[in-house]
Amino acid sequence: MPSLTSLVGAATAGYGAVLVAAPTVLLRPCGLADTPDTRLLTRSLAVRDVVLGLALVAAPAGRARRLATAARVVADAGDAAAFGAGLAGRTARAPLVALAAAGWGAVTLLADVLDERAGR
Predict the structure, then answer these.
(1) Phi-psi category of residue 109: left, alpha or beta, with phi > 0 → left and psi -120 to 50 → alpha
(2) How far apart are alpha carbons 104 and 98 in whole angstroms?
(3) Do 68 and 77 form a contact (C-beta atoms < 8 A)?
(4) pLDDT confidence of residue 89
(5) Does position 53 have pLDDT exceeding 90, yes or no?
(6) SS3 state at 22
(7) CA 112, CA 98: separation in Å to the nearest integer?
(8) How many CB atoms lie within 10 A of CB 116?
(9) Cα separation of 84 and 57, whole Å?
(10) What's the total number of domains in the chain?
(11) How far apart are CA 93 and CA 104, in angstroms?
């Protein structure tokens, strides 16, 4: 059975791949205009998520997986702060978008902690 961390990583990579192909999947809930600039920014974040997700899938248990998890959690915390602050006053969804970003980081951290406790 794959580790929980690798399953979260696969979901992260999959979502990132969707955003590379269709940035409006993120732009619309954020209330952002669909412009060449916002699509470019979304795709750059999505590529980062694909890479971090694949790192979570590939990293063996131990230090490598903890580092991949830490990178994902820090990226999500940064996204939560940036979206929360950047969207404040622009859309009523700003807190929800920030919470969703922080939530992915929390799920990643929880998966890694559970995997370590289970010896996976």
Answers:
(1) alpha
(2) 10
(3) no
(4) 82
(5) yes
(6) coil
(7) 22
(8) 16
(9) 28
(10) 1
(11) 17
